[in-house]
Amino acid sequence: MLTLLNFLSEPTINLIYIMLICGIVGGIGNTLKGTTCNGVVLSKNICLGIIASFTVPLFLSLVSSDIINSLYIKKSGTDDKIIGQSVNYLIFSGFCIIASYASLDFLNNITGRVIQKIEKIEKKLDSIEGKQEVTNKTIKTIALAAEDKTQITDQELIQFQTPAYTEIMKSIKNKEDKFRLLDLIKTEVNQDNTEIEKKIEILKNNNLVKEIELGKGEKAVALTGEAEKIMK
């Protein structure tokens, strides 16, 4: 009930009245310009005029107009703002009159615009899904490549059981075994960033760490199963 009351605010009611009146006036004008004028044609044109008039807010949204939004700004009491809102009501009325006067052409035009908008959104979504699919495949390929490397022996693991390496691996490790941003690791590990990058590269080469590249040059790392032997 509260939502309905919020919807039926003063600007909304004013806009509904304008669209109804302009739809009727435009429908009558559409009838008068024709050669046939009878009750059936008049009723048809008035109905189409009202329908076209009620699609004007959609049209204004498609062309990124802020006329309607400006009508919902609360008046501060200044004459300039009140006059500005009155002018916008007149402009909106003009749009409604034009739309209802050329109802069929206007409705066909706006239908075409909506379809184009939907097609653009669908293409954008397909593009995003395609990029996501490529990213997922890349992550999977990198993970599989890391797992396919020759397993390191227990003797070779000993060289990485130093405080410097274990500090880095403890920062990378998390309960969910998810990738962590390399920049975040650098803030947690008390070592020079260059040294951290060198050690991570060595860990990667020995199948103890796997790395992926995210957008904008960001990198993320995660431990492999071999690294868990050191962490125990």
From TrEMBL:
<feature type="domain" description="YEATS-Like-Associating Three TM">
    <location>
        <begin position="12"/>
        <end position="125"/>
    </location>
</feature>
<keyword id="KW-0812">Transmembrane</keyword>
<dbReference type="Pfam" id="PF20303">
    <property type="entry name" value="YLATT"/>
</dbReference>
<protein>
    <recommendedName>
        <fullName>YEATS-Like-Associating Three TM domain-containing protein</fullName>
    </recommendedName>
</protein>
<feature type="transmembrane region" description="Helical">
    <location>
        <begin position="12"/>
        <end position="33"/>
    </location>
</feature>
<keyword id="KW-1133">Transmembrane helix</keyword>
<feature type="transmembrane region" description="Helical">
    <location>
        <begin position="45"/>
        <end position="67"/>
    </location>
</feature>
<dbReference type="InterPro" id="IPR046890">
    <property type="entry name" value="YLATT"/>
</dbReference>
<keyword id="KW-0472">Membrane</keyword>
<feature type="transmembrane region" description="Helical">
    <location>
        <begin position="87"/>
        <end position="107"/>
    </location>
</feature>
